[in-house]
């Protein structure tokens, strides 16, 4: 696996009430159809395009972000687990979803890349994590939830009530997330939810990839920003050039999201970190701002 993905990338960050750390960890890789990652088709023909296509991308990281904050330790998404490659892993999801997940994606996840085995490299145990922050319910973002039995899991209510291709059979038994509504505003964003008392960590509703998809914004009173984009784009360049992913459920919402976030990141000192960008970890470590 590429060192960009196996290395842990860390950046110190000044939150409003003190210094903390932000870490990038990849829980393995996934290859997707090239037209799933990027398309020039419309919302409907793009789906047929990537299903019929045989060309896969190079392996892409499955980033998990660990935030050591003055108010506690947070994990953004939970990554994949090694069982994803087992033949019957998707058998409870019906013929169509099973076929799609076995044929449209290629996962490479070893047990030593599972999140619970990576956190100790940061001198953090699973029990030290206070909250799990989910961007959305796609499997490569929720498949490490089984390692978190005591933590509060935060999820946008709209994502829970109106899921887009979520595989609920993969969720832990009796999974009961803490649902929130994005009925606040923060900076340039009208649909947000504050996570911390210091109001330096927020959910930002960024629909398009799914209806309830949320990004997370870390910011401080010095006007530094780190924007954890989830799957709103696959790369920083897609944000810069307004490129669509064939996997988005609603292209119009995705276009509006990309426009709003791109304008914010250009106008402010922001590091943009999508969940599958090969260079996101290095961008965090090197403090490479969006431009």
From TrEMBL:
One function term, GO molecular function aspect: metal ion binding
SUPFAM superfamilies for this protein: Metallo-hydrolase/oxidoreductase
Any single Pfam family the record assigns to this protein: Lactamase_B
Keywords for the protein's UniProt record, in alphabetical order: Hydrolase, Metal-binding, Zinc
Ranges of residues in domain Metallo-beta-lactamase: 61-276
Cofactor: Zn(2+)
Record bears the keyword Transcription: no
Origin: domain of life: Bacteria
Transmembrane annotation, as ranges: none
Matches recorded under PANTHER family: METALLO-HYDROLASE RV2300C-RELATED, QUORUM-QUENCHING LACTONASE YTNP-RELATED-RELATED
Family: Belongs to the metallo-beta-lactamase superfamily.
Protein name according to UniProt: Glyoxylase-like metal-dependent hydrolase (Beta-lactamase superfamily II)
Protein species of origin: Aureibacter tunicatorum
């Amino acid at each position: 696996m590429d060192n960009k993905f196996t290395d842990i990338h860390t950046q110190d960050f000044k939150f409003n009430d003190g210094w903390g750390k932000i870490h990038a960890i990849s829980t393995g890789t996934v290859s997707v159809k090239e037209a799933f990652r990027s398309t020039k088709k419309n919302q409907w023909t793009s789906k047929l395009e990537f299903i019929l296509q045989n060309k896969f991308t190079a392996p892409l990281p499955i980033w998990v972000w660990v935030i050591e904050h003055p108010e506690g330790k947070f994990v953004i998404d939970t990554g994949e687990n090694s069982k994803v490659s087992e033949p019957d892993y998707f058998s409870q999801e019906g013929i169509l979803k099973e076929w799609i997940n076995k044929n449209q994606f290629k996962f490479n996840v070893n047990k030593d890349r599972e999140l619970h085995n990576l956190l100790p490299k940061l001198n953090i145990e699973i029990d030290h994590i206070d909250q799990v922050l989910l961007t959305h319910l796609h499997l490569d973002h929720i498949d490490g939830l089984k390692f978190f039995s005591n933590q509060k899991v935060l999820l946008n209510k709209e994502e829970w009530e109106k899921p887009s291709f979520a595989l609920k059979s993969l969720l832990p038994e009796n999974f009961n997330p803490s649902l929130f509504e994005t009925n606040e505003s923060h900076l340039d964003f009208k649909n947000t939810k504050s996570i911390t008392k210091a109001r330096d960590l927020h959910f930002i509703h960024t629909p398009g990839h799914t209806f309830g998809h949320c990004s997370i914004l870390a910011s401080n009173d010095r006007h530094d920003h780190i924007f954890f984009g989830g799957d709103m784009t696959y790369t920083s360049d897609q944000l810069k050039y307004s490129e669509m992913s064939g996997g988005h459920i609603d292209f119009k919402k995705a276009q509006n999201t990309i426009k709003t976030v791109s304008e914010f990141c250009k106008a402010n000192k922001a590091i943009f970190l999508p969940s599958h960008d090969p260079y996101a970890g290095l961008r965090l470590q090197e403090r490479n701002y969006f431009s």
